[in-house]
Amino acid sequence: MLDYDTEAARYDRTRGGEPRAEAAAGAVLGLLSPSARTLLDIGCGTGLVTRQIAHHRPELRVFGADAAYGMARLARQRIGAVVLADVRKLPLRAAAVDAVSAVWLLHLLRGDGLVREVVAEAARVLRPGGVFVATVDKDAGHDVGSDIDAVLAPYLSAKAADAADLVTGYARACGLEPAGEAGFTGHGQGRSPLRTARGVLRGDYASRLALPGTSPTRLAAELTALPDPDRARTDPSYRLLAFRARG
C-alpha cells in the first residue's frame, strides 16, 4: 500500500490532474438530487475532485475527510472544510448530510470487512433520501485490451474489494438502494509500460496484483520489454454507482 502522506506532493501530477478531477466531479454531480445541500467527500485525498464538485455546484456545502495527514493538509488549502479522520468512524452525528461521495477509495480497502464498514458509516451519516456515490470496479477500468493488460493478467489478485456486486450488497444491508450509475474518463491515466513498471516496483498496484517474492522485479522486466515502452495506452473508463437512503 502506498504511503499517502509522502505521496501527497506528487499525487495530482501523476494522476491526470484537473481534467480527470473535473470528469469525476461532473459524474458525481450528475447522480445527486437537485435538492441536496450538503456533501461529504470521504477519502478526499488532495481535494482536487472535492474542489471541482464545490466549484460546479456553488449552492452545495462541500466537506472532505481523509485519514492521511499529507492529503488532508493539501485538501484543506483547496476547500477549507476538511477533517483528518478514519472514514469508518466519521466525527459526524447520524443523518448529518445529504450526500456522501467516495471516489477512488473503496478499491484500496483490502482488509477483511473494511469496505462494508465504510459503506455502513456512509449510510449512518446520510439523511433519509440522501445519496451515497462511489466508484466501483476501479482497477478493472484500466483494462483497455492493451499489451500491458496481457502482461498483468497472470498476476491479477482475487476479486476486487470494490466489485460492484459486493458494494451493492453492502449498501442494501445498510438500507441503501441502487439509484443510478455513471461513467467518466480517467484523463491522463493511460498507462505506458515504463510507468506501469515503476508503479509495480513502488507497490502502487497492491490492490490489484498478487506479487510475492521476486515477482515485482520479474513483472517490471516484462513490462519494460514491451514495444514503445514510453507510449501511453488508452485512458481508463471509471464507473460510479449511486445508492439512496430509505425514508
Describe the protein in words:
It is a single chain. The protein has 247 residues and is an alpha/beta fold. The chain has a single domain, classed as Vaccinia Virus protein VP39 (Rossmann fold), CATH 3.40.50. It has helices at residues 4-11, 17-30, 48-56, 69-79, 114-125, 147-152, 164-173, 193-202, 215-224, and strands spanning 38-42, 61-66, 82-84, 97-102, 126-136, 176-185, 237-245. Strands 3-2-1-4-5-7-6 form a seven-stranded mixed sheet, with helices on both faces. Strand 4 (97-102), helix 5 and strand 5 form a beta-alpha-beta unit. Helix 1 (4-11) crosses helix 4 (69-79) and helix 2 (17-30) crosses helix 3. The longest helix has 14 residues, at 17-30.
Which terms would index this structure?
247 residues, 7 strands, Rossmann fold, 7-stranded mixed β-sheet, 36% helix, alpha/beta, 9 helices
Looking at this structure, what is the CATH superfamily? Vaccinia Virus protein VP39
Total of DSSP H or I helical runs spanning 4+ residues: 9
CATH architectural arrangement: 3-Layer(aba) Sandwich
Query: In order across it, which strands form the biggest sheet?
Result: 3-2-1-4-5-7-6
* Helix proportion range: 25-40%
The CATH class:
Alpha Beta
Mean pLDDT: 91
Structural class by helix and strand composition:
alpha/beta
Low-confidence stretches: none
The general outline is globular
Strand content: 15-25%
Order of helices and strands: HHEHEHEEHEHHEHHE
Q: What's the story with the biggest beta sheet?
A: 7 strands, mixed
Number of domains: 1
Distance between the termini: 38 Å
How many E strands? 7
CATH fold name, please? Rossmann fold
Write down the Rg: 18 Å
